[in-house]
Design a protein that fits this description.
The chain is about 40% helix and about 15% strand. The protein is of the alpha/beta class. It has 2 domains: about 15-40 and about 280-370, Alpha-Beta Complex (Aspartate Aminotransferase, domain 1); about 65-280, Aspartate Aminotransferase, domain 2 (3-Layer(aba) Sandwich). The protein has a 7-stranded mixed β-sheet, with helices on both faces. The protein has a 3-stranded antiparallel β-sheet with strand order 9-12-11.
Length: about 375
C-alpha cells in the first residue's frame, strides 16, 4: 500500500518537472564554477583547524541540562554585541530558531501579519503557533496597514514578520516603514536576517545595521532580530537577538531550544571565529559588493531579465519548469552550477544566481556570455 503511494507521488512530481535530487558539494566535477551557493563570503570552504584540548565534538545534552558550554555563552554575548542588542540565544539552525521562537511568542489569541514571500521556516513557525495569520502583498505597506486596521483589534498580541532580504527574489524589505507601522499599531516586529547576516552594515551585522548606519532606524526599533550562520558566516546554526527579557523568555519557552541537543562546541567556536573575522576584515564584504554591482550592471547592459535590489541573490525568471531545468543543464555543460528553483519553493520558475566574494570578473563575464544564449529558451 505505502510503496504504491510513494511511487505514484514521485511519478507525479517527475511528470510535472518538480522532482528533486541532492547535489553533492563540493561538486564532483571540480571544473564547475558555483553560482548556486549561499556561501556569500567563501568562508564555508575553510578547513577546520582544531586546538588541542580546547573543545568537545559533542555537547552531551540539551542547553538546559548538560549541553551548555562556556563557548555557547561566549558566542551569545558576541552575537548581542554584534547586533547591538541586550542579549541573544543560539539555536542549532535558522529553521529551529524560527519554528521555536514564533510559536513561543504567539498563540491562538494573537495575530501575525506576514509578507507573502517570507521563507518557509517562518511560515512553519506561524502555523505551529496557531495564531491567526494574514499575508500582505509583498512589501506593500499600504496593504499591510489595511489588514492591520481591519483585524488588529480582534486579537491580543500582534506581530509583523518579514525577511529582511528575500531569499528567492534578492530584494530588500522596507524595514524603516515596517518599524513605523509596528510602533503605530503596537505590534512586535520580527525580522529574519538570514541572507543579510555577515554582509550588510558597517560591521556586517545585517540589513538592520545598514538602516541604523543611515539613521533610518534605531536598533531597538526591532523587537526580534533572527538570523543564521549557515550563509555568509559559513558554518551552521541560528540566533535570535533582542532584549534580556525576550531572550530569557525564549530560553524558557522555545521548544526547539529546550528539547534539542546543544550544537557542537567545536562548531560553535568556528562560528565565533568567523564572526570576529567578518567584523575585523571588511575586504571580503567589499569584494562581494563589487561583484554584485558588476554582475548587475552587465545584466542591465545585456537586457537580461532579473529581479534584484543590490543583494547577492539574483532571480532570472523562466517560462516554465522545463525551461528552468533545460537552462540549468546547459549552464552545467558550460561549466557553471546554477540551479533551477521551482514550486513549492517559489510560485514561478526561475534560475537563482548567487554571487560570492570568491567569484572573479572573468567568472562573471563567462556566465553572462552563456546566459545571453539562453534568453529564448
Amino acid at each position: 500500500m505505502f510503496e504504491k503511494f510513494f511511487e505514484e507521488k514521485l511519478t507525479e512530481l517527475k511528470n510535472k518537472n518538480l522532482y528533486r535530487s541532492e547535489n553533492i558539494y563540493p561538486c564532483p566535477n571540480k571544473n564547475l564554477i558555483n553560482f548556486a551557493s549561499n556561501d556569500y563570503l567563501g568562508l564555508a570552504s575553510q578547513k577546520l583547524i582544531t586546538e588541542k584540548n580546547q573543545d568537545n565534538y559533542g555537547s552531551s545534552g540539551s542547553r538546559l541540562l548538560t549541553g551548555t558550554h562556556a563557548i555557547h555563552q561566549e558566542l551569545e554575548k558576541e552575537i548581542a554585541n554584534w547586533k547591538k542588542t541586550e542579549s541573544a540565544i543560539f539555536f542549532g539552525s535558522g529553521y529551529l530558531a524560527n519554528v521555536g521562537a514564533v510559536p513561543a511568542l504567539a498563540n491562538p489569541h494573537d495575530v501575525i501579519f506576514s509578507d507573502e514571500l517570507n521563507h518557509a521556516c517562518i511560515l512553519d513557525g506561524i502555523k505551529l503557533s496557531g495564531a491567526k495569520k494574514f499575508f500582505y502583498k509583498h512589501k506593500d505597506l499600504d496593504h499591510l496597514q489595511e489588514l492591520i486596521k481591519t483585524h488588529r483589534s480582534n486579537y491580543q498580541k500582534g506581530f509583523i514578520v518579514s525577511d529582511s532580504i528575500f531569499s528567492m527574489d534578492g530584494d530588500r524589505a522596507p524595514i524603516d516603514g515596517l518599524s513605523r507601522i509596528a510602533k503605530k499599531y503596537n505590534l512586535g516586529l520580527y525580522l529574519d536576517e538570514a541572507h543579510a547576516t555577515g554582509i550588510y552594515g558597517s560591521t556586517g551585522a545585517g540589513l538592520v545595521e545598514e538602516f541604523c548606519d543611515k539613521k533610518l532606524l534605531g536598533n531597538l526599533d526591532i523587537m526580534v532580530q533572527m538570523g543564521t550562520f549557515s550563509k555568509a558566516v559559513g558554518v551552521e546554526g541560528g540566533y535570535i537577538a533582542g532584549s534580556h527579557l525576550l531572550i530569557d523568555f525564549l530560553k524558557n519557552t522555545a521548544r526547539s531550544f529546550i528539547f534539542s541537543t546543544a550544537p557542537s562546541p567545536l562548531i560553535t567556536r568556528q562560528i565565533l571565529k568567523n564572526i570576529i573575522s567578518i567584523k575585523n576584515n571588511p575586504g571580503l564584504r567589499l569584494q562581494l559588493q563589487q561583484n554584485i554591482n558588476y554582475f548587475r550592471e552587465n545584466l542591465l547592459q545585456n537586457q537580461i531579465n532579473f529581479t534584484n535590489e543590490e543583494t547577492s541573490i539574483f532571480a532570472l525568471p523562466c517560462k516554465s519548469n522545463q525551461s528552468a531545468l533545460d537552462k540549468s543543464s546547459i549552464l552545467m555543460q558550460a561549466g557553471f552550477l546554477v540551479l533551477a528553483v521551482r514550486y513549492p519553493t517559489v510560485s514561478s520558475p526561475r534560475l537563482r544566481v548567487c554571487l560570492s566574494a570568491l567569484h572573479s570578473k572573468k567568472n562573471i563575464d563567462k556566465l553572462i556570455e552563456v546566459l545571453l544564449g539562453l534568453e529564448n529558451l
